[in-house]
Write a structure and sequence with these properties.
alpha+beta, 37% strand, single chain
Length: 179
C-alpha cells in the first residue's frame, strides 16, 4: 500500500516535468535597456517548434503587444512569430517575433547567422530603409512553469511529505508474551 502511494506521489511530481512547455521567458539587452517578456506559445506539431500567440512585458520601457504573423512592416522578412526550443542552433528564425511598442514603434526580434538582432521602426515604417537594426546581447529563453503544473508538483510533494511523516512517526512496540 505504501509503495503504491509512493509511486503515485512520484508520478504526480514527474508529470509536470515531462509536459510540453507552452510559456517561455525571453530576456535580452538591446542598445537602450535590459528587457524581459513572457511569451505564450502553441506547439505546431513539429518537434521543438512553437507559434507565439501572446506576450506580456516591456521593451525599452514601453508595453510590448504581439503583432499577428506577417504584419511587421518589412520588405524582406515579415515576422512569423515562430520560436524554436531547445533552440538548435537558434531560438528564432530570420523572420522573428514582431511587437508594437506602445503606439510609437514596431520591434522585431530575429536571428541572422546565429546572432540575435532587432529591427526597430516607427509605426509608419513601410520599408527596411526606415528601420534601425540593433544587435542584441544576453538573449536567453527558458520555459516557465505553468500554474497547473506548479499545483500538480506541489500536490505530489505534499503527498511525499505526508508519506514520509507517517513513516517517521514513532509507533509503540508490541510485546508478545509466550505462555
Amino acid at each position: 500500500m505504501r509503495l503504491r502511494s509512493l509511486v503515485l506521489a512520484f508520478a504526480l511530481c514527474s508529470i509536470c516535468l515531462i509536459a510540453p512547455a507552452e510559456t517561455f521567458t525571453l530576456s535580452f539587452t538591446d542598445d537602450l535597456s535590459s528587457n524581459a517578456l513572457l511569451l505564450l506559445a502553441s506547439p505546431t506539431g513539429t518537434s521543438g517548434q512553437f507559434l507565439v500567440t501572446g506576450a506580456s512585458g516591456t521593451i525599452d520601457g514601453l508595453t510590448a503587444t504581439l503583432l499577428a504573423p506577417g504584419t511587421f512592416p518589412s520588405d524582406d522578412s515579415p515576422n512569423d512569430n515562430m520560436l524554436y526550443f531547445p533552440g538548435t542552433p537558434s531560438y528564432l528564425d530570420l523572420n522573428g517575433i514582431g511587437f508594437e511598442l506602445g503606439t510609437t514603434a514596431y520591434y522585431n526580434i530575429y536571428s541572422f547567422l546565429d546572432t540575435y538582432n532587432a529591427a526597430r521602426g516607427s509605426t509608419v515604417t513601410t520599408s527596411d530603409a526606415d528601420a534601425t537594426f540593433i544587435g542584441l546581447s544576453n538573449l536567453s529563453l527558458a520555459p516557465a512553469p505553468e500554474p497547473p503544473a506548479v499545483l500538480l508538483l506541489a500536490t505530489g510533494l505534499a503527498a511525499l511529505g505526508l508519506l514520509s511523516q507517517n513513516r517517521l512517526r514513532v509507533r509503540p512496540s508490541t510485546v508478545r508474551r509466550r505462555g
